[in-house]
Amino acid sequence: MKENKGQVSKEQEREIRDEEKKTFRRRLTDYLVITVASVIYAVAVSFFLDPNSLAPGGVTGIAIIFNRITGLETGTWMFMINIPILALGMWKFGWKFILSTLYCTAATSFFTNRLASVGAVTADPLLAAVVGGSLMAVSLGLVFKAGATTGGTDIIVKLLRLRFPHLKTGSLFLLTDAIIVTASAFVFQDLDTALYAGLVVFINSVLLDIVLYGRDGAKMFFIISDSPERIVSRLLEELDISATYISGSGAYTGTDKKVVLCVVKKPLSPKLEEIVRQEDPSAFTIITSASEIYGEGYKSIFSQKL
């Protein structure tokens, strides 16, 4: 028995070591992702937004405005403004969260200053808004998936998500950035520039939700039919999707019914409707959009909810 206990202990030690190695590899991967994302973010700011005076909200927008007022580098302002916000994040989320965020903030500020000398890639404000906003969204999505933020309003948005988890990240950015974009119109005294900056915020918001949540594009069906078994059998055979029976009862007739609940991706939706029509033309069917789905065939239930 003692040998067995010793043997179990060694196995447990080995599992712990393997877990520690896995954690180290994951952290290393996360920091590599954050580094790449920081470069992408810096490219968006230094090549497209800053040279065209587009202040896209958040700390970046404030930094661009302060750069025009004081002449101090935009990347330096980004880091300075983030200091009190990072302190707030450390208090709320702990030092482990802030460590990766601090690295991301420092890297983004550093690369922004280093790339600033290149200047504008395009002088067309529309192109700058579209490309800059798209690059920002990709960068923020990568950073969030790595468990960090770029600091600034990212931390504020994370705090708001704790309080209002039903709100999506991109929508929260849209709200918090609107004030800064409006302020840029007064600082630069150019309404067109502010409108282009608003376009950056909109593009960033839409694409960020796609990067983070994906385009599930799924439909949810509630089917009340006299032939639920035949419908489900065809779903399993022809569409290779499962379904759930929900017990129901007609309010008028009092008859017990089996309600078929299933979720399908959009391309399969017409085929499912056709199966229902063929098996039971009089079936009562409710079809609604499903924006987020977790489970087999979709996103992992264990993935981080941002």
Give a written overview of the molecule.
The protein is α+β, with helices and mostly antiparallel strands. Helices cover 65% and strands 10% of the residues. A four-stranded antiparallel β-sheet has the order 2-3-1-4, covered by helices on one side. Strand 2 (244-249) and strand 3 form a beta hairpin. The longest helix has 48 residues, at 2-49. The chain is elongated. The chain starts with a helix and ends in a 16-residue tail after the last strand.
Distance between the termini: 48 Å
Proportion of beta-strand residues = 5-15%
Which class best fits the helix and strand makeup?
alpha+beta
Rg is 26 Å
Major sheet description: 4 strands, antiparallel
Helix content: 55-70%
Q: H/E element string?
A: HHHHHHHHEHEEHE
State the strand order across the main sheet. 2-3-1-4
Would you identify the regions where 5 or more consecutive residues have pLDDT less than 50? 1-9, 301-306
> How many helical elements?
10
- What general form does the structure show? elongated
Mean pLDDT: 81
Number of strands: 4
Question: Helix and strand layout, with pairings?
Answer:
Elements: H1 2-49, H2 58-70, H3 74-93, H4 95-115, H5 125-145, H6 153-163, H7 169-188, H8 191-213, E1 218-224, H9 228-239, E2 244-249, E3 256-265, H10 269-279, E4 284-290
Antiparallel strand pairs: 1-3, 1-4, 2-3
Helix pairs in contact: 1-4, 1-5, 2-3, 2-7, 3-4, 3-6, 5-8, 6-7, 7-8, 9-10
